[in-house]
Amino acid sequence: MAKFSQTFLQSMLQPSYQEGLFTAARGIGAAPQMRALQQQQQAELSRYDESTKLSEQGIAAAQQGDVSALTQRIADLRRQMATATTLQEKQAIRQEMNNLQRMRPGAEKIAIGNKAQSIVQGEQALQDETVSGPAKLAIQKRLEELKKDPEAMRQYNQYKMDEWRTGQAQKQMESEQWLVDNAKQIDEAIQNDDIEEVQRIILDAGEFSNAAQSYVNTSLRNAETLIKFEENSIERKKAPSVDYYKEQLEALPEELRKGLKPTLAAYEEISKDWNGETWTVSGARARASQLEKKLQSEISAINRSVAIADYRISESEAAEKRERIKNLEIKINTPMTSDYLTQGRIYAASLLGKKEQLTPELIKQAANLLYQRDRQSAIAQLEALQGESVDEGALTNDGGFSVNVGGIVTTRTMVQESIEQQGVEATKSLLTGIGLNDDQIKALMGVDMSQSAPTQEDLITRSGLINPARARLKLQQGLPQ
After folding, report:
1. CA 230 to chain centre
2. How many whole angstroms separate alpha carbon 265 and alpha carbon 287?
3. Amino acid 266: pLDDT
4. Domain of 59, in residue numbers
5. Exposed e or buried b for every residue in 98-133, given b needs 16+ CB within 10 A?
6. What is the DSSP letter of 453?
7. How distant is the alpha carbon of residue 402 from its chain centre?
8. Are 217 and 249 in contact (CB under 8 A)?
9. Cβ atoms 270, 276 nearer than 8 A
């Protein structure tokens, strides 16, 4: 025991042992600081994990077109940045926020596409006969809400137009196949003078009947040409028909005429061996006949090509007409877009007096009038394209009355539709705001549409019926009209 104590005392006196004691003492004193440092690091790691999670959620939202969720993640990062304790941490969070902000335009575009696709899916669902009752009403309500977004409707319209064009491309291929399947039959029927068969083929062509008629018309002219070929042939006349074939070539387009000129030149040259009564060179007639048949064959081939071209031109014009109709139908069925609000603001502001105030309601009403004007124009164009009778005079002044203010025509139909949507008083307020007087407003709205009963003078002197001054005079005199 005494030996252990002595050894222990000696070791305590050694420098290395004393240093170890000092280190242990420092460690014991620094323990609270170490724990605080560790807690700080853990907190920073936790915030880093949270910001990373928020950033990943924001990216996913942007990719899905969920603009609301993307906005929320950016707001969450902004709040987290406020709790950051170091400059480096704040800079890192700021970078994440900037990255998400740059993704917003793309997310908005995807969101519009999602809405447009939802409209397509909703309309397809409504066509399902098994969908009825509350489910159908819910879909209709949802579609009504989605169609209020003008950008979504614009993309939806583009989708419908692209889908329609795909169908038209298929129709064009069907049109070409119809011609391949029926051209020979038409030519044979014409050669056999079987007009009934020709008419049957045209009627059976269905939607291609107009183009088929164009092909038949050209083919009939070609048949007449073939008959004249026979009448002017060397076998029948013995004499060459140089002038006749020159006329045939002159009737062809220049680009098609070039290929036949060498044959015609050779035919004209060999025809010099005809002296008006007989062929002066042996074999000249056979050679002239050979060149003549070649000219006939080449001209007939060109005429057949022209018949095919006429068919395609007719079908192309029909396709162009169908596309114009489709565009007008889409325009008519498209809700008012935000562009009209911009135009309505300009329209209304330019016509207000100095002391009059431009209000959101006035802008909306003006926009609606402009929208209805364009929609009515589209309806009139559609009626004209579809072959319905359209009175151009009525279209210009809308049944007898219109007002042109600032180069923009306001018609009675536009006002009637505005009344249906906005009400009588709101429409009157708009018309007054854009500078129309009471007589103009009454004429645009129609006596039967005003809220108060018209007076006898109103009925007699209404603009567009008779001369107002003369009518008023007779009313005062009590004379019959």
Report:
1. 54
2. 13
3. 94
4. 2-102
5. eebeebeeebeebbbbbbbeebeebeebeeeeeeee
6. P
7. 30
8. no
9. no
CA separation (Å) from 220 to 208, 244, 297, 424?
Answer: 18, 19, 17, 63
Same domain, yes or no: 347 and 385 = yes
Contacts of 88 (CB under 8 A, 6+ apart): none
Tell me: do 320 and 187 sit in the same domain: yes
Residues 369 and 305 in one domain: no
Tell me the H-state helices in 103-208.
Answer: 104-126, 133-146, 150-191, 195-204
280-337, pLDDT tens digit by residue?
998 999 999 999 899 989 988 888 888 999 999 999 999 999 999 999 988 888 877 7
Q: Which pLDDT score is estimated for 36?
A: 67
CB-CB contact of 59 with 100 (8 Å): yes
Gap between the Cα atoms of 364 and 344, Å rounded: 7
- The DSSP H or E segment spanning 409 is strand 408-411
CB burial of residue 304 (10 Å; 0-12, 13-18, 19+):
middle
Residue 316 and residue 359 in one domain: no
Provide the token pair at 155: 């993309």
Q: What is the rounded distance in angstroms from the CA atom of residue 24 to the CA atom of residue 189? A: 117
Nearest to 190 by CA among 154, 153, 215: 215
Which residues of the chain carry a pLDDT beneath 70?
1-34, 36-41, 43-44, 388-411, 413-414, 417, 420-422, 433-435, 446-481
SS3 of residue 275 by DSSP:
coil
| Total structural domains within the chain | 4
- Distance CA(202)–CA(218), nearest Å, equals 14
CA atoms within 13 A on the CB side of 114: 13
